[in-house]
Known about the structure:
The protein is α/β, with parallel strands linked by helices. It has a domain at 91-110 and 227-421: Rossmann fold (3-Layer(aba) Sandwich), CATH 3.40.50. It has 20 helices and 15 strands. The protein has helices at residues 15-21, 40-44, 51-63, 69-80, 112-130, 143-152, 171-178, 194-206, 208-213, 224-230, 232-240, 258-268, 285-292, 316-323, 328-341, 348-357, 365-379, 385-395, 414-421, 448-457, and strands at 3-5, 30-32, 91-95, 98-102, 134-139, 158-165, 185-190, 216-218, 248-253, 275-280, 294-296, 343-345, 358-362, 401-406, 442-444. A six-stranded mixed beta sheet has the order 3-4-14-9-10-13. Helix 6 links the parallel strand 5 (134-139) and strand 6 (158-165). The radius of gyration is 20 Å and the shape is globular. The structure holds pyridoxal-5'-phosphate. The site of pyridoxal-5'-phosphate has 18 residues, from helix 12.
Amino acid sequence: MNYISTRGNTKKLNFEEVLLKGLADDGGLYIPESIQTMSLDEINSLSNKTYQEIAFHIIKKFTGKTFPDSVLKEMIFESYKNFTNTLIAPLIEYEKDKYIMELFHGPTLAFKDIAMQLISRMLDFILTKRDIDSTIICATSGDTGGAAVDAFSSNSRVKLFVLLPNGKVSDVQRRMMTTVKSKNIKILSIDGTFDDCQNIVKNLFNDHDFAKSVNLSGVNSINWARIMVQCVYYFTAFSFIKNKDIPINFIVPTGNFGDIYAGYLAQSMGLPISKLIIATNINDILKRCIDTGVYKISDVMPSNSPSMDIQISSNFERLLFDLEGKDPLEVKKCMALLSDCGKFELSKNAHLQFKMMFDADSLDTIDTLKIIKKVYVEYNMIIDPHTAIGFGVALKKPKSSTIVLSTAHPAKFPETIFEAIKQHPALPEKHKNLHSLSEEICSMPNNAQIIKDYIVSQ
Ligand SMILES: *Cc1c(COP(=O)(O)O)cnc(C)c1O
């Protein structure tokens, strides 16, 4: 399987090279040159398999010859052996044909663990084979950083730098990064927003000499490997559903368009998804884009679902490539407009297609609290604020079968949960002493050059 850049200017790479590189040299994102589709028979045959077996079946289609089968199987097994639910991503039917898929049973209580655990092992295998080390830089809106810290803390070939927006992640989220003291990890608190952090990451990748000199790689969802691993749970969800004869909609709390793009990938492979529904907070650039056809950046506003306080939804570039007839020149034009004028407009046909496949809705901070309370009172479940946004959107679709992706454990956002239901959700046993551990964090300005110098100095 070959991979190409959405901006068309680079040579084709295999999976191993794509995983190592993260972002393409032309600033674009890697995507497979073609997608292997699956028949409904093949998809249905997954129904009696375990999560790990389904993961192997799907992931193998994208990794080609990079890993021997036995190695890939072993890595998948190791990645999920510490999850606290043996199903990995259990599906809860809270009402007939209404589901929540819990993706937070990994070591840092958010869905980011599902991909990060496996990516760390894949990278270790490749780096060991090549006998090289790698520098990983990762921007986080709260959960990616923690997942990366856990996954890479014992990975001796990787030096990890996490960029988090100062004061804009929850205490629990920050502590999951800053209390794990590992020589190969540095947590940098940037004076800016998540978008600033992600722009620094892109800036570092685009300095090709620097990127080469430190073997730079990335584990944000701009790295294809994230998307590939995340598309697995759309297939496992389908395998659990009882009534497959009615249209099935997935509702995905999304900011960077990563998790929902993984659903689009599953759909492109043949999974019968009716609609992919974008659920956002007040930072609703994707909803505005689906409503108007114009993708226009505005200021990031803080909300109580901080992992989605994002205005530049990087993975949208991957969808844009398909919407604009797989034409890299069109993508380049749009991205140039975005960086010069802060906006671009979809072609008429692209906008029409976007609306056909996707829906979007948003909830503000107050409605998010109301939903957390409603779900607690009516279903006796405590859901985190990101999941609550998905749930709120599901309530507006009463007539269809919906699966809401539950992206984080409520204990990661205790202040918000308390505000909604006057109760503190219990932290799982493993994290009980999180608040008594000391923190290690380095404050940094929003300046790519200074971050670059710091990385070199380390
Ligand atoms: C990262 C994150 C999201 C958004 O994921 P995308 O990749 O931007 O789609 C939603 N909820 C939680 C809890 C997250 O950590």
